Write a sequence for this structure.
């Protein structure tokens, strides 16, 4: 094959004319330049010679002069080695979705107009071995052109349109591939490989993210890959003052106790928003949020002027008006090019290292229990027993104690929100073992199993804590028994003094809420979730609280089992009898199992026919072998733990978001600035349910680019 | 407010303009939104705190001809520096090392004052290096000794500190951690193999935790490494090097199979990507809840009480805000600061740009509202004769309810053109205590800000009218007339404002239990200011064109904004 550059060029121009898929507009061609070696002209020659016969497989010996990188590149799926795989026969050209191929050749450059094609990103070096043989399936007319042969032409228009499509290249959609059997195989994981395997130098600039988490009282912000946020900004009255109002640093002022504003609920001044928007001035929310974000940007992020994308962790239920307020601030005032929303329970799961779990977020206004299965929210329940109630209880306790000391002579003192909060976060705690209060566990009177008595050992002398109150007039100190500091948590979160039927649906005690959430999950999900209980949220830092919740839950499960029927009414006796029978059977069988041999040795006793479900399974040697294999190759056994109550610590939603952004995983909900400013939240046109597979794909290629061409976006769980 | 009375705030109208176009957004807001034009500014509204600024804080965009506040500018960072050591930090270091000073600048975690590096050298037994060093707070006497940290050198505190955990143990670096993780993985793999070959049934999850709970950072890096490895196992580690094909990875295996068989690939395509697994051990970032830590924390609070715990502001200042006890404190490296240029949000013109030298406080560009907006100020018109030698200080903190008091509104004009001013105010102040307010002369002219000597040199200027007259006792007597200005100078005019402060407690039928809230007794008057003037068309040449300029085209301009004047605090009679 002595065909030189000239004939190759002629072939190229031939091919150029027959490239029907070009009109499909989805193809991307990227031409990398310079540093790679020259393409062997024989390749071009071979392709030319086979051109007339579509879909013929060609084997070409490629000389050692050609590094494999020469023919392939970011899009070409180099994982397939030096192989250029398929392209479609001309019939299915519209479905064909070629990867953006990278071809370098000096002669291409010569063939085309110089400067007509711009390398879109720095060329990569592929220090791989040079293959001596590769299999090239040369597709009929179009292939060479998607290799870039056609590109180096004089058609300037084409090059611009192509380069646009390069930017918007997505991996082929699965459906497309499935519907056209002969379609070229764009390897599915190509995208991920190009992401995690090689840093595409060109993308790096555009996917810098900021990670924000918005709660009702704090906003956290930082950068991906860092273990903690750069800043945690509260929303107190001190953050709401006018410019040049410095009174919070006035010693006289800070000594004074602040009064609650008229008509304000407990702690209302300290929250950014509340779920009930009827009393919320959204403009004010925007103002406060904007100021906090400005502080974060100017004081903590210290960014260069380049706009950053934002990964925003939000609670999964957020009123749309509120969301759009927040988004407007971020898009409008902070020029974020795009914002990706992720729900905080899922991120908490990520930050715990799990795929599924029951996320108990004890926040400020309410506690939400979210069942997460395979990174998806499957169930959610909520109660108002959370931080707000807790700090209000603490304030009540402190008021009572303070007023007791001062007897009648002084007017009644009322501790301020800060004081209650301070006491709560510093010395508040929770008894880690439930008391033996009958009503705590809500046993039906007759069947209550005898639990061991949890009695707090009475210490002598009783430990006390001295709390200073510098803000009361005169400054005072309160000495309070240590045990009583655990009461607020008890009352606010577990409500031991109230029977369950006195409570409303929205104020269930935590352990009952968790129990019910578990109960309403499907059995298999429940099995996963119950041993992955992730307790997070601000209040969860209260010492002893996590242990307590888990203990209460365990007791509840032991006493109730997983029976959704709470009371059988008149039939309860029968039901209990049945239960007892079952338990006895179980015991019996266990005993039998232990001394099976003795039983079988006794020929007189006819073995009772055991129900099929209760019989010991027959052990299949192949199964065991498979199990061993799974043990060897598959995930360790710890990944399959289930069926027992177990708590797992999480690093928090922010850390989860940081991990996700670091790994450049794309969320379902991503909105572009332009589109949002144009349509607002109403622009979310895609349906809520997005199947897993496209979602996985969207974990996609060079992250930055996938979003660019997304015509529509969805609000996901927030829809 | 905390500012001394009297004071003036200017409202930037980005407050209105931003909200107005989206009425549906505010549907949930309780007060019915009446006409935007009709609405008077309410300084008591919580939102007004975000739109009121002192005049000195405002910039002015000459192209948009509007006031620009902090919210309606775009800021861009020019350079970074440490406020404590005044060293400039390049932006690449910001990216790699974060937003804190990496030199020896530390703040006390207890009281936030800057810490100093002190030596612990024993004078009787001097060491060669100058002895162990510590960071100590000169204000509250806290030092790193309390958390068991001593340094070997007095320089490079940051790098030393990053290697020492509280209590003096060394923290492994990221590399060491990675190595350790690898080692553990190896061990586990080997164990697994052994289990497989020996056929033992028991699970290999015998975690030896060494009794230490991993720190937040450890967990995070474990988790991050775990996720990365899981992601990587889906794909060969480096797709571009063919010799590194990982045959154990299912995806690469199937791909290799695909190469040689054209029929199987359809089935392969449909297969879902195999999910990555969960973290299984501490070294992968899984942290099982341990009741012992809870119990330990409770025990610790019980033992050491209030003083060993941290206040919320101390916690928030820490790099890791989830700590609880004072033994976990770390010295806080000082936050870097930036010099930032500001641009108008609308037209992107630069409004202010500081000099890039750190120690310089000068600006290259600075378009202040001070130079474009008349300054409005207020002071009491004291009824005491002006001739008394020693000025009598008016007590603005004690305004008497129900007694009409006169104040002087003083307007000075920074522009080089004379302006015509119209003032407007609601007749009663908003809020709980309603005071009656009257501006005696709401419309008047203010002279141009010409050169001081122009006054003296040119005789054509209209003579300044003095509305004072000589009283019967020979002192200048105030003659407060409605519709007349009080006094006027070269570029200023003052008018009289009459205020009848309201009553703190409503005389009739008020409920006693309603106590006054903070700042409800402050008398603040919203005043709407509207200016009309003729200026040169070209904004750039304003000021210069004044002297030369008859040929320069003039155009009529107007400007309007709300101000809030803080007069004083009302006390009951």
């Amino acid at each position: 094959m002595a065909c030189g550059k000239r004939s190759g060029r002629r072939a190229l121009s031939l091919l150029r004319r027959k490239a029907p898929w070009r009109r499909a507009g989805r193809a991307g061609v990227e031409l990398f330049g310079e540093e790679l070696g020259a393409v062997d002209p024989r390749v071009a020659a071979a392709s030319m010679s086979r051109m007339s016969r579509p879909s013929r497989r060609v084997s070409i010996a490629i000389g050692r002069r050609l590094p494999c990188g020469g023919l392939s590149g970011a899009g070409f799926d180099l994982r397939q080695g030096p192989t250029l795989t398929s392209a479609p026969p001309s019939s299915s050209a519209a479905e064909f979705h070629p990867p953006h191929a990278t071809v370098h050749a000096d002669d291409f450059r010569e063939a085309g107009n110089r400067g007509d094609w711009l390398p879109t990103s720095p060329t990569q070096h592929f220090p791989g071995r040079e293959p001596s043989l590769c299999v090239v399936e040369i597709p009929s007319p179009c292939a060479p052109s998607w290799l870039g042969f056609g590109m180096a032409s004089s058609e300037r228009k084409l090059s611009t349109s192509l380069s646009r499509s390069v930017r918007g290249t997505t991996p082929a959609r699965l459906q497309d591939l499935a519907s056209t059997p002969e379609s070229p195989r764009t390897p599915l994981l190509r995208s991920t490989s190009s992401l995690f395997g090689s840093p595409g130098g060109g993308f790096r600039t555009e996917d810098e993210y900021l990670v924000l988490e918005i709660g009702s009282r704090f906003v956290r912000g930082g950068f991906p890959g860092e273990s903690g946020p750069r800043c945690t900004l509260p929303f107190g009255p001190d953050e709401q003052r006018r410019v040049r109002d410095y009174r919070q640093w006035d010693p006289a002022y800070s000594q004074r106790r602040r009064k609650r504003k008229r008509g304000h609920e407990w702690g209302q001044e300290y929250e950014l928003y509340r779920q009930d928007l009827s009393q919320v001035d959204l403009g004010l929310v925007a103002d406060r949020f904007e100021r906090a974000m400005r502080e974060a940007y100017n004081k903590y992020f210290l960014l260069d002027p380049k706009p950053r994308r934002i990964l925003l962790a939000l609670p999964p239920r957020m009123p749309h008006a509120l969301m759009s307020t927040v988004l407007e601030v971020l898009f409008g005032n902070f020029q974020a090019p795009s914002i990706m929303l992720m729900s905080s329970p899922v991120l908490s799961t990520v930050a715990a290292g799990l795929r599924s779990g029951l996320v108990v977020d004890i926040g400020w206004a309410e506690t939400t229990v979210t069942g997460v299965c395979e990174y998806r929210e499957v169930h959610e329940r909520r109660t108002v027993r959370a931080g707000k109630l807790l700090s209000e209880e603490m304030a009540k306790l402190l008021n009572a104690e303070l007023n007791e000391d001062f007897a009648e002579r002084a007017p009644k003192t009322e501790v301020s929100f800060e004081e209650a909060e301070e006491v709560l976060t510093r010395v508040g705690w929770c008894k880690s073992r439930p008391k033996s209060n009958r009503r705590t566990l809500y046993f039906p009177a007759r069947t209550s199993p005898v639990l061991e008595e949890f009695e707090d050992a009475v210490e002598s002398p009783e430990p006390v804590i001295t709390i200073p109150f510098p803000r009361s007039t005169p400054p005072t100190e309160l000495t309070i028994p240590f045990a009583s500091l655990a009461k607020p948590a008890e009352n606010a979160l577990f409500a031991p003094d109230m029977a369950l039927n006195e409570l409303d649906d929205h104020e269930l005690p935590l352990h009952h809420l968790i129990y019910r959430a578990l109960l309403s999950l499907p059995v298999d999900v429940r099995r996963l979730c119950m041993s992955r209980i992730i307790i997070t949220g601000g209040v969860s830092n209260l010492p002893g609280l996590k242990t307590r919740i888990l203990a209460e839950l365990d007791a509840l499960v032991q006493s109730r089992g997983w029976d959704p029927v709470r009371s059988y009414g008149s039939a309860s006796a029968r039901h209990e009898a049945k239960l007892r029978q079952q338990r006895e059977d179980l015991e019996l069988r266990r005993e039998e199992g232990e001394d099976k041999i003795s039983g079988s040795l006794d020929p007189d006793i006819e073995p009772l026919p055991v129900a099929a479900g209760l019989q010991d399974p027959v052990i299949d040697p192949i199964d065991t072998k498979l199990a061993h294999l799974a043990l060897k190759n598959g995930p360790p056994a710890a990944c399959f733990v289930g069926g027992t109550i177990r708590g797992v610590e999480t690093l928090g939603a922010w850390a989860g978001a940081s991990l996700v952004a670091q790994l450049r995983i794309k969320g379902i909900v991503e909105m572009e600035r332009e589109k949002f400013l144009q349509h607002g939240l109403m622009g979310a046109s895609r349906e809520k349910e997005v199947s897993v597979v496209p979602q996985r794909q969207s974990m996609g290629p060079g992250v930055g680019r996938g979003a660019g061409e997304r015509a529509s976006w969805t609000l996901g769980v927030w829809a | 407010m905390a500012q001394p009375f009297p004071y003036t705030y200017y409202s930037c109208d980005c407050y209105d303009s931003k909200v107005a176009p989206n009425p549906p957004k505010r549907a949930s807001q309780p007060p019915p939104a009446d006409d935007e034009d009709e609405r008077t500014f309410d300084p008591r509204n919580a939102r007004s705190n975000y739109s009121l600024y002192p005049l000195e804080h405002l910039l002015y965009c000459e192209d948009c001809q509007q006031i620009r506040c902090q919210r309606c500018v775009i800021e861009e960072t020019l350079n970074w520096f440490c406020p404590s050591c005044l060293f400039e930090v390049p932006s690449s270091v910001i990216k790699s090392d974060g937003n804190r000073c990496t030199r020896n600048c530390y703040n006390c975690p207890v009281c936030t004052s800057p810490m100093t590096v002190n030596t612990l050298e024993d004078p009787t037994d001097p060491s060669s290096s100058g002895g162990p060093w510590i960071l100590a707070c000169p204000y509250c006497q806290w030092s790193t000794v309390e958390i068991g940290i001593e340094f070997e050198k007095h320089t490079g505190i940051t790098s030393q500190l990053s290697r020492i955990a509280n209590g003096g143990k060394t923290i492994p670096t990221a590399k060491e951690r990675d190595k350790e993780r690898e080692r553990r993985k190896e061990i586990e793999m080997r164990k697994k193999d052994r289990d497989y070959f020996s056929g033992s049934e028991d699970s290999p999850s015998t975690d030896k935790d060494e009794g230490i709970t991993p720190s937040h950072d450890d967990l995070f890096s474990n988790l991050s490494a775990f996720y990365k490895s899981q992601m990587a196992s889906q794909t060969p580690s480096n797709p571009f090097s063919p010799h590194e094909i990982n045959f154990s990875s299912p995806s690469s295996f199937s791909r290799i199979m695909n190469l040689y068989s054209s029929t199987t690939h359809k089935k392969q395509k449909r297969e879902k990507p195999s999910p990555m697994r969960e973290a299984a051990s501490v070294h992968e970032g899984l942290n099982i809840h341990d009741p012992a830590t809870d119990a330990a924390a409770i025990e610790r609070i019980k033992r050491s009480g209030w003083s060993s715990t941290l206040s919320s502001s101390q916690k928030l200042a820490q790099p890791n805000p989830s700590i609880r006890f004072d033994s976990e404190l770390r010295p806080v490296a000082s936050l870097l600061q930036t010099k930032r240029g500001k641009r108008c949000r609308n037209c992107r013109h630069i409004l202010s740009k500081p000099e890039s030298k750190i120690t310089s406080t000068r600006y290259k560009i600075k378009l202040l509202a001070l130079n474009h907006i008349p300054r409005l100020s207020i002071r009491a018109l004291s009824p005491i004769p002006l001739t008394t030698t020693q000025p009598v200080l008016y007590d603005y903190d004690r305004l008497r309810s129900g007694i009409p008091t006169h104040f002087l509104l003083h307007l000075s004009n920074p522009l080089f053109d004379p302006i015509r001013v119209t003032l407007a105010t609601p007749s009663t102040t908003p809020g709980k205590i309603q005071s009656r307010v009257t501006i005696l002369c709401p419309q008047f002219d203010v002279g141009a800000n010409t050169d001081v000597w122009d006054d003296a040199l040119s005789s054509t200027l209209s003579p300044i009218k003095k509305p004072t007259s000589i009283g019967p006792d020979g002192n200048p007597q105030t003659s407060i007339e409605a519709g007349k200005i009080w006094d006027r100078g070269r570029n200023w005019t003052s008018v009289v404002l009459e205020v009848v402060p309201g009553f703190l407690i409503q005389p009739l039928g008020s409920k006693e239990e309603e106590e006054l809230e903070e700042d409800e007794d402050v008398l603040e008057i919203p005043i709407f200011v509207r200016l009309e003037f003729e200026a040169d068309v070209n904004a750039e040449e304003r000021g210069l064109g004044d002297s030369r300029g008859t040929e320069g085209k003039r155009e009529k301009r107007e400007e309007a904004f709300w101000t809030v004047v803080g007069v004083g605090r009302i006390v009951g009679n």
User: Anything to note?
Assistant: The mean pLDDT of chain B is 77. The radius of gyration of chain B is 36 Å. The longest helix of chain B spans residues 174-198.
